[in-house]
Amino acid sequence: MIVGRVIGWVLVVAGIAILARDIIAWIDAGSPAFVAAGQLWFTLHDGSLNLIQAITQRYVWPPLWDPIAVTVLLWPAFLVIGVPGLILSWVFRRRPKLRRKSA
């Protein structure tokens, strides 16, 4: 439970950091400049993006890459990172312990 919660919060913090970067770029440019998930991934590690594309198209299922993965990679990165983080944080949240009534 705690691992899922930690991963969720790390993703939420990363999503907020990416959104802050996008807002700063928006202020500097004067127009909205949201970085796409694919562009961010390519900037961070282009080799892994190319490897995942090759493996998906050759060995898994070619339509999984185009149009499904390509569509997700074109979405804003803060959404692609932050929304799964929010979902994980909610699913693995701490729940109050139920106390038994004593007779």
What does this 3D model show about the protein?
The structure is a single chain. By secondary structure, this protein is mainly α. The protein has one domain. Helix content is 78%, strand content 0%. It is built from four helices and no strands. Helix 2 crosses helix 4. The model has no long low-confidence stretch (mean pLDDT 95).
Shape estimate? flat
Structural class from helices and strands? mainly alpha
Count of domain modules:
1
Largest sheet: none
Low-confidence stretches: none
Topology:
Blueprint: H1 2-29, H2 37-60, H3 62-74, H4 77-91
Helix pairs in contact: 1-4, 2-3, 2-4
Provide the descriptors you would attach to this structure in a database record.
mainly alpha
Produce a short descriptive summary.
The protein has four helices and no strands.
